[in-house]
Amino acid sequence: MGKKQRDTKVMNNGARRGRLAWAWSLLAVATAICVSVGACALLLPDRAPALLGSAGETTTAPASVQEYSGSQQVTVVPTISTERNLLGNANGTVTADWSADGLASGKGAYKVNDRVVVALNTATPLYRDLKTGDKGDDVLALNNELSRLGYNSVAGSDTYWWATSDGWRQLMNDNGNPSDGTLALADTMWIPENAVAVDEWTATTGSMVTGGTAIGKIPGALTKLTVKNGAAVGQDRTISMYGVNGILPADSTEITDAEFLRNVSANETFQSMDMQTKKAGLDATVALKEPLQVLRVPAGAVFGIDGSSGCIVPKSHNASNTPVKVTIVGSELGVSLVQTQDADVSAIANVEIGSGLNGLVCK
To answer: What are φ and ψ of residue 13, in 5° steps?
Structure first.
């Protein structure tokens, strides 16, 4: 290699080393800057930019008046009594049967050996033959039922008087039986209500019956409907199910009105359901009998809630933050519907919300 080539190689190596040193210097400076910035960031106070600062608290919200019907879909759970056996007292051949439409007190149920057996709803079941002069709770029950049916008797008396005998004779004659006023047990059949439906009836025309044996059953009766998870309100409400309308009494979640229950029981939809389906609950609609004028406020405006009672703070003409007692009658998403106890709802345009309610007492 000549001298000129050696000199050129030395120069190239020197230039390369110079560029490398310069690169390392730039890297060192950049690193120092980053470290300084990081340190400064750690030392700066933790504060958000002014544009991102939190907004001021909202302390009032609008309120409005609306009509409230309280209409809502509910589930009602039925209470159904246990089925009961119907016992006959007559022996012989059934010569007529009128049980298809149910049994009614004072009316013929069936005929045995061509004599009518009359259904009777007495407070005490009849268990013996009776004649003038007999006494007992069964006689008292007979006197009262004869009186209710419109026949001669001595209501409230436990004695089988001549009037009782006359009333019984009238009842027998009206049903086609000759009678001298003496009561024969075989002419009667006890039923637990004024009118009952029957099931599994065996005293059909042509069959043989024996006194003291079951000839049919009373299916379990609907005795009560209870609103599932319902809350009582201080007013009567209407209830509607299967086209049957009734009243849900004030301060109650139960319906025991016999006529309403009877009409529900007679509905084809109800009758077509099995017992398990019925016990799971039935659909119904309830609504206030008379709509209310209520105040619509944010749910957060009601404080000191105890059951359906609470308080709000009206802001329209109330600068002193005085709580007003209210009754919560309904709710929607994020909203409470209330009635005031001592204030005109139409005069309330705004209510207090937020921290302004802290420390206030509802009483």
So the answer is: -65, -40
Amino acid found at 337:
L
CA-CA distance, 153 to 346, in Å (whole number)?
A: 63
To the nearest whole number, what is the mean pLDDT of the chain? 85
* SS3 at position 105: coil
- The helix-helix angle for 162-174 and 137-148 (nearest 10°) equals 50
Q: Which of 115, 146, 24, 62 is nearest to 350 (CA)?
A: 62
Measured distance between the N- and C-terminal CA atoms of the chain, rounded to whole angstroms:
110
- Three-class SS of residue 91? coil
What whole-number distance in Å separates Cα of residue 79 and Cα of residue 70?
25
Q: Please give the structure tokens belonging to residue 217.
A: 């059953």
Which DSSP state fits 349? -
What is the per-residue pLDDT across 261-307, written as a single tens digit (0 to 9) for each?
Answer: 989 988 999 988 888 899 899 999 999 888 888 999 999 999 999 98
Beta strand pairing status for 188-190 and 115-120?
Answer: parallel
Instruction: Tell me the two tokens of residue 162.
Output: 């001549």
The full set of domain ranges for the chain reads 1-39, 61-68+292-357, 72-81+221-288, 87-218
Give the contacts of 184 (CB within 8 A, at least 6 positions apart): 129
Give the count of beta carbons closer than 10 Å to the beta carbon of residue 337.
19
The DSSP H or E segment spanning 66 is strand 64-68
Distance separating alpha carbons of residues 216 and 174, to the nearest angstrom: 25
Pairing between β-strand 195-196 and β-strand 60-62 as defined by DSSP bridges: unpaired
Architecture of domain 61-68+292-357: Beta Barrel (2.40)
